[in-house]
């Protein structure tokens, strides 16, 4: 059944609704990307020559350095923390379990700005050191290491989330078997738990790296020039959108390579469904407290400190901007986030289901295409979306006299979120699908379960943690999404991230603290609720 | 778990439906604005306009490049009547791409000086932003200072702080220098600046001022309204403004504008023109400029008290469109000079 190969003619002869839906989805996601690819029809060799003669080598080197550094950073933080909360017991574990996800709720460049504001020459840390130690000279901290540390602290939750779900799903029995077979606790981790979690870790790493490659805001705070810098230089500085689109599509190719590596990283590893994890090992002596110290330090640096700084700014001056309109801002932010998360995860489930049950090369390529939107810098993708939606609007107007249908409507905005975040939802959903082994389905059917019952009693329980993880990631990502929201929102649909943008664009960082803090607070409740639900398995 | 999931699904469906219900349009006079100025700066202005005329202003904020792309893509379908942006370079670019239409209006020509509007009337300045030298009152005496170009001299070695060349303000400044001095001389100046840097270039003007106050460097180049805001919050900071290039035969201080133009396909062209004209008149000029401590574009209108206290200056009288015309050259020049 599952292994039945569909040949192309049959695919066309008998319409298969889920398959057609996947193809339509792939077209929708690929449309804005293909619009960007059209840029290659133009000759921008002058821009290329200029970039190659001046800055390109540095940009490429910086980008590679950043990718390597962030890879190490998010893997170390994400895996170690995920293992701690799922397999070990230490004071505060229940709190850190969900709180360690929180850094993702703060936009990366807000954390970047706060860390630089604290640590740079004119900041409080160096000022205090200079006052205390006359010999302390200090200097600029706008260096690669701080960029890498900051981005690792911002993006590790992707790895943490997916690895945590995987470790928890492995269950106690697996580790006990490993121990019975004579492995020590460390060997059991390295040789059993970690390899089995590889698909999830690779999926989390891919998300973190795509964010890193597409990031412009955070690296701009440090004035650290990466490949995205060249894109924006061409677009904003040289007024050459075509060259920017060419550069962006190259970045996309690079990301597709990263994704191929991820496939490779997954290897043949597959999840095994395990029992519920109820018992956690409590290390002896002061070790549990050391774990608490480690988790606490990460939480402090990645969340408590920046949020504390935001609270300070709000209390100091930014509260003056608080008015009744904030109720609407928070409401719309949550509404857009929940709506987009719901739609996107449903579509990711569709992709996962089709990928699981249909074997057709074209389909698998379509799925790959449908999940590539995340790799582009947000504003470049937003431009691709605007160009393609506006073109559709013009066609509709020409033939039916409709005027603007897509542009400036919520439908277009929702579609943009799907295009951008389908990959984010698909990662956890796909790894969840891998837990549903074909033999389970066969067994259910043999035992006389109807298809509906199979879905309810086999698929649903096994998919739930992954689905909730996906919901959470997309919700948080949409809430802080900026370029597409700015460009496509209908009149009056301002959100918190729009406010953050407006303040920071005018250099009013302290005033941006109010919408930033509101964004974190608005995200707290859904994060807390969803994380509790992903805990059991 | 299952019932929870069901509730979750239900909430999701409700959210989607709620998110897709479109707001109802009212049957009142209105005008639609695309603007790169933040809500906190434009809303007071638009509210005043509505209060005075009864015309509703609907607006979208976004960055300049994105708004231009949207206008261009929407073409004749665009609901926008008026584009308000900062930096003459963006306005020049919008006009160049045919996104704006000419306006011939005596009041506008009277209220906006000739060098702060498009010669063909496609855009008009609304407020003036000056970019000048800031210095440490502890380590620099103002008579050591003269021009932007002089900051390339040996005496400022390891004493200069600059903001990144990726910011359009610096691109405009260098574009003007190319126009005034020619490309080789402008490049020599920029290279001199880079040699004089005390530390890596900063991401924003506030950081430049903070570095000067903290002693990391002694002079920098900033927009005056950042200085105004900084001093409003921390009046004790040991920094001061210096009006650059004021000497006889020198170019005058580099200024730029925030400005507006009527879109090529404006559905409510007359409403747009009325709003544009209104914004250059006294009361609205105060609102526009004072909200961000900028200078009014209308020479008849006095700047805010705190701004006027910095003293008066002679501005460069080159038409600000040069910022757009030579922006790409300026970017390339700064790349060559190693100005990040």
From TrEMBL, chain A:
Pfam families: BPD_transp_1. It is found in: Cell membrane. Residues 60-260, 330-530 form the ABC transmembrane type-1 domain. The chain crosses the membrane at residues 20-41, 61-83, 95-116, 145-163, 200-224, 244-265, 286-314, 334-354, 374-392, 404-429, 458-476, 512-531. Keywords: Cell membrane, Membrane, Transmembrane, Transmembrane helix, Transport. Its main location: membrane. Gene3D superfamilies: MetI-like (1.10.3720.10). It is a multi-pass membrane protein. Belongs to the binding-protein-dependent transport system permease family. This is Iron ABC transporter permease.
From TrEMBL, chain B:
Gene3D superfamilies: Periplasmic binding protein-like II. It holds the Pfam family SBP_bac_6. Transmembrane segments: none annotated. It comes from the Bacteria. Signal peptide: none annotated. The keyword Signal applies. Keywords: Signal. Belongs to the bacterial solute-binding protein 1 family. PANTHER family: IRON-UTILIZATION PERIPLASMIC PROTEIN, THIAMINE-BINDING PERIPLASMIC PROTEIN-RELATED. This is Extracellular solute-binding protein. It comes from Alcanivorax quisquiliarum.
